[in-house]
Amino acid sequence: MTATARILDFLRDRQPQGPCLVVDLDVIAKNFRAFTRAMPATRIFYAVKANPAPEILQLLAKLGSCFDTASVGEIELVLAAGATPDRISYGNTIKKERDISSAHALGVALFAVDSVEETEKVARAAPGAKVFCRILADGAGAEWPLSRKFGCDPSMAEDVLLRAHALGLHAYGISFHVGSQQTKLGAWDLALGQSKAIFDALQSRGVTLSMVNLGGGFPAKYLKPVPGTGQYANAIQAALAKHFGNAIPETIIEPGRGMVGNAGVIKAEVVLVSKKHANDNQRWVYLDIGKFGGLAETMEEAIRYPLVTTKDKDAKGPCIVAGPTCDSADVLYEKTPYNLPLTLTVGDEVLIESTGAYTTTYSTVAFNGFPPLQSYVI
Amino acid sequence: MTATARILDFLRDRQPQGPCLVVDLDVIAKNFRAFTRAMPATRIFYAVKANPAPEILQLLAKLGSCFDTASVGEIELVLAAGATPDRISYGNTIKKERDISSAHALGVALFAVDSVEETEKVARAAPGAKVFCRILADGAGAEWPLSRKFGCDPSMAEDVLLRAHALGLHAYGISFHVGSQQTKLGAWDLALGQSKAIFDALQSRGVTLSMVNLGGGFPAKYLKPVPGTGQYANAIQAALAKHFGNAIPETIIEPGRGMVGNAGVIKAEVVLVSKKHANDNQRWVYLDIGKFGGLAETMEEAIRYPLVTTKDKDAKGPCIVAGPTCDSADVLYEKTPYNLPLTLTVGDEVLIESTGAYTTTYSTVAFNGFPPLQSYVI
Questions:
Q1: pLDDT value, residue B340
Q2: Distance between CA atoms of residues A152 and B212, nearest Å
Q3: Closest-CA distance of chain B to residue A128, Å
Q4: Which of A242-246, B6-10, B175-179, B266-270 has the lowest mean pLDDT?
Q5: Residue A156 has what pLDDT?
Q6: What is the distance in angstroms between the Cα of B246 and the nearest Cα belonging to chain A?
Q7: What's the distance, Cα to Cα, between the start and end of chain B in Å?
């Protein structure tokens, strides 16, 4: 149940028109404290891309969070929220050299790389900065597994970091990402073993690495139960001890979905319930929000959000759930139909839970003339 | 070759920063005239969702086009561009009743439906309006085939239109959509046969239909050659004559991609060229635009845009093409790698051709902190 009393009160009192996301800051504060309590020795870099709302960044800056950013635009948002540049990581491994220069000028001194080419850009545009090299991790077990887009083979990380050192950068550490919404607790073990091997290889070349960036992947609860933050922390701690013994490095994590996912609820409305044929048993339920209005993560039905209606005590039956645009790809759940009340009808409200992450900014500018998803942070 | 001299001159003279779309209005005017010449008896309803830039709407309004709209937002854009409401169709079959009311208040009197439920909304909110019923068409042969999201079984269209008539609406006609980027010229034949059967069934119940909306589906040229507008017109004319004999109804078409697709070119930049492993032969080429910056139609590698570089005379080799965001789904071409010059390097300009349709408005608000796609209409 992610619709908190504060969110429900807000919706009842304000009656906002059109689809909107409501985020409860109290839940985010609670999540932040759960991370710090579970991993007291680990610095938290909130993945700004999950939800860059100024109120969220201000809260996390006040609570002492650091920030993982993907662009100069995000760096500027974080600075505007009151964080100092030493709390910012430029975590995108694909950066224009002029954007690296801009970040450097703003005081950012920690950069992700996964190739010699990118390392050379950082050396030119942000001389002396700290760099960490992202390695390819096995995303098995993740609901939104990562492609091979980011990271390099562990065997190449050594070259990348040696090149960084030779160019006067501070070869600082290793990062990996086990895949978003990762529910296999053992996923970090393999990557930490690979990280230790790179630490050793660099040490034998006279370069001492200091940091392991454990990435994100901490899940939000959608329909299926997920392990708690404490269980993740224990699994990671055990893997660190196993591989690094009593020389455990500095660690950072980059939760995004795990920090804000369960803090938000989208209020939507049923626009149409219809069938395609008089003798058809297949209902189509069309909502006023779809793939292009903020629910892009339903792509290939990857993430199955909980849908809550006021009629959930009535008998339910399967239906196809689709969005409001004229794009035929704007269908949310069809391969695995969704069970919704048979009494559901035009105008009914539908709450889409656990939608605090990766919704507002994924929303299109104006596809089909629909405005972007409204957001209220309370 | 869709980069016209005007577009190339603009890019050379203005040197716009960051990824941008440049649209040549002369090409759109030429496309409009080709449609009117090929189908002189057919009214053209431009599918505004393809590209709602004010300059494009103003040009088409001046040329005498009508407009197919998906939302009240698009209706307002069309009215602002100088078209009168009698030239507007509200073509989305999924509409909130209050949006139908707003459209009715703005003077719009032509609505699409595909269910009894939607027809009842139109009868309440836009009494006396003309409605046409969309039927499900077989999308085989389309590069971006439509799901079953829109349209009802032809057998149900009769009920829908009889209900419209009973509710005091003007049961006006039938519409269908053969699928976007449709290259099978025979695709219209089946749907026109079904339309005629519905005309006859309604006539036997005392209701005379007047119009067939032939929808869109007219292709833009990407990498593969496509039939010309004249060939489409001939195929449609033959199918109309075959099924309707000498009682050919009023017809309308809704070109979107076919009107503006080849009028636009996106200028992008190579951000990084790298490999994942020292002995890897697989290049990754990262551009400053991807799935979330306007190229959503590369989803499942559906549309393969022509990529043009200044090094196209050099030897080429396969590479994976990806976008600049931290989302691992932001990969454009991987299953079928793209052949690009082996000399391609960071900072090189890449022109992405035939991108006038379904790019600007598909762009996300601010995913990863990147601004939406810039657009220049010249």
A1: 97
A2: 56
A3: 21
A4: B175-179
A5: 93
A6: 31
A7: 18
Q: Would the pLDDT of B226 be above 80?
A: no
Q: Which residue has the tokens 């034998």?
A: A204
For residue B239 the two structure tokens come to 């199918």
Lowest mean pLDDT across A22-26, B5-9, B225-229: B225-229
Numbered ranges of CATH 2.40.37.10 in chain B: 262-377
Interface check A121 vs B, CB under 8 A: yes
Question: What's the length of chain B?
Answer: 378
Q: Which two structure tokens, joined as six digits, stand for B366?
A: 């601010």
B336 CB-contact burial (10 Å; exposed 0-12 / middle 13-18 / buried 19+)? exposed
> Please, how many CA atoms are within 13 Å of residue A213, restricted to the half-sphere of its CB?
31
* Contact between residue A256 and residue A210 where contact means Cβ atoms under 8 Å apart: no
C-alpha span between A192 and A137 (Å, rounded): 10
Q: What is the CATH code of the structural domain delimited by A262-377?
A: 2.40.37.10
Q: How far from chain centre, in Å, is Cα B236?
A: 19
Other Cβ atoms closer than 10 A to B348 = 18
Q: Which residue has the tokens 């829908």?
A: B160
CATH architecture of B25-260: Alpha-Beta Barrel (3.20)
pLDDT at position B232: 83
- What is the CATH code for A91-255? 3.20.20.10
Contact criterion met (CB below 8 Å) for A376 and A16: yes
Residue with tokens 């929000």: A289
Q: What are phi and psi of B52, to 5 degrees?
A: -90, 20
- Containing B321, the helix (H) or strand (E) segment is strand B316-322
CA-wise closest residue to B367 among A357, A60, A263, A259: A357
Mapping DSSP onto H, E and C, the string for B109-127 reads CEEEECCHHHHHHHHHHCC
- Convert B33-52 to b/e letters by CB count within 10 Å (16 or more is b): ebbbebbeebbbbbbbbbbb
Cβ within 8 Å of residue A38, ≥6 positions away = A229, A230, A232, A233
What residues contact residue B48 under an 8 Å CB cut-off, 6+ apart? Answer: A369, B57, B67, B68, B69, B70, B74, B77, B78, B256
Give the whole-angstrom CA distance, residue B5 versus residue A363: 34
Report the C-alpha gap between B36 and B26 in whole angstroms: 16
Please, which residues 222-251 of chain A have a Cβ atom closer than 8 Å to chain B?
none
How confident is the model at residue B130, as a pLDDT? 98
* CB-based contact B219:B182 (threshold 8 Å): yes
Is B341:B311 a contact under the CB 8 Å cutoff? yes
Whether the CB of A159 is below 8 Å from some CB of chain B: the reply is yes
Q: How far is A351 from chain B (nearest CA, A)?
A: 18
Chain B residues touching residue A156 (CB < 8 angstroms): 275-278
B152 in catalytic set = no
Mean pLDDT for each consecutive 10-residue tract of chain A (378 residues)? 91 95 97 93 96 98 98 97 98 97 98 97 98 82 66 93 98 89 78 95 97 86 77 89 95 94 97 89 93 90 92 96 92 94 97 96 90 95
